[in-house]
Amino acid sequence: MVQTKSKRIPLTGDQAVATAMKQIDPDVVAVYPITPQTEIVMYFANYVANGQVSTEMIPVESEHSAMSACVGASAAGARTMTATSANGLALMWEIVYIAASLRLPIVMPVVNRALSGPINIHCDHSDTMGARDSGWIQIYCESGQEVYENTILAVRIAEHKDILLPIMICQDGFITSHAVEGIELLEDKLVKEFIGEYKPAHSLLDVENPVTYGPLDLQDYYFEHKRQQSESMKGALKILPELFKEFEKTFGTKYDFIDTYKLEDAEVAIVALSSTAGTARGVIDELRAEGVKAGLLRPRFFRPFPREKIIQALKNVKVVGVLDRCESFSAEGGPLYTEIKAALYDSDIRPLVTNYIYGLGGRDVFPEDIKKVYSDLSVALKNKKVSNPINYLGSRE
């Protein structure tokens, strides 16, 4: 039976995450504050102090220690969460890889923020994109509502017996993390029923069935263990639709690997992650009124990469502009662009594709910027050629 959601209440994106964590009531949360994530653990600390959750909250001396504590707790069989941003994620780096390699279903909301230096506390995707090959599932959210619901959904994804991978739920720093919007909360009882009780198959505290975590693994089996991680990530593409359907049946919200807007008959389209998609929708409506067949593809999941869904969504599009809020310092473009282009290379469709690096360090992207992208794409459509494969949108020359 589909739940009727509550009345909308005003929450920031960070408050929405903390509320989801309260409803999940994880066994262990290891925390260290960093802007613009701090409010997540601050609000959750209030729930702990007020006795509204039974969570063991562990304040630590650094993000490296936070992820280390999460690894120990998860290996011991506890449902485990943390949260971070930017330099905090970078300081976790060593342990982020270990968490994935040990197949520990840790759930970590990440508020996207530019990596230093120079020092910057505002949004871009350099932090999580840097961790894209660490073995973590990654979801990118457009709104506070999405980050709230995906934090709950992430528990089921990470803990699925045939996935068992940690997961990052990403939202744009300050743009959604600190902006207030109306959030429709789900019923506590139904959230509890949806996530269920965590029953790990293997834990360090199960003395009747002893296991080893973190052994030395040299030439004999390391390769096979890495391949197991890879197969689990790819296998999630087949498992996740079942969880999407169950979430929709329980709560009424439909999720998929991608989200599209007016893409069915689009000739020119942009691909963008997270909050930028909201700006693009308004621009698309204006352009449609002018007769321009513009559309939008927003990948929700970057890992696992939904190649077939993306190809199917872009099958009618003639020119594609991929927007990256991250610079990969490569002549071949940003990370989203290179993945999209690689996916299209062996497909039956071959639209023209160009890349736009934008919004680094929190620089605003305005409707005029998005209009410029569509204008460029329209020129490429007419000329049957893109003028520049890599472009810098909104940057001084």
Short description:
With 397 residues, this protein is an alpha/beta fold.
Give a topology summary.
Elements lengths: L7 E5 H12 L3 E4 L6 H12 L6 E4 L3 H13 L4 E2 L4 H6 L1 H9 L5 E6 L13 H5 L6 E4 L3 H16 L7 E6 L7 E5 L3 H8 L26 H30 L6 E4 L6 E4 L4 H14 L4 E6 L1 E3 L3 H7 L5 E6 L10 H11 L6 E7 L8 H17 L6 E4 L4
Parallel strand pairs: 2-3, 2-4, 5-7, 6-7, 10-11, 10-13, 13-14, 14-15
Antiparallel strand pairs: 1-8, 6-12, 9-11
Helix pairs in contact: 1-2, 1-7, 3-5, 10-13
In words, what does this structure look like?
- With 397 residues, this protein is an alpha/beta fold.
- The protein contains 13 helices and 15 strands.
- The strands form 4 sheets. A 6-stranded mixed sheet has the order 9-11-10-13-14-15, sandwiched between helices. The protein has a 4-stranded mixed sheet with strand order 5-7-6-12. Strands 3-2-4 form a 3-stranded parallel sheet, with helices on both faces.
- Helix 13 links the parallel strand 14 and strand 15.
- The radius of gyration is 21 Å and the shape is globular.
- The model has no long low-confidence stretch (mean pLDDT 97).
Sheet with the most strands: spatial strand order: 9-11-10-13-14-15
Helix proportion: 40-55%
List the helices and strands in order: EHEHEHEHHEHEHEEHHEEHEEHEHEHE
Beta-strand content estimate: 15-25%
Task: State the end-to-end CA separation.
Answer: 56 Å
Secondary structure category? alpha/beta
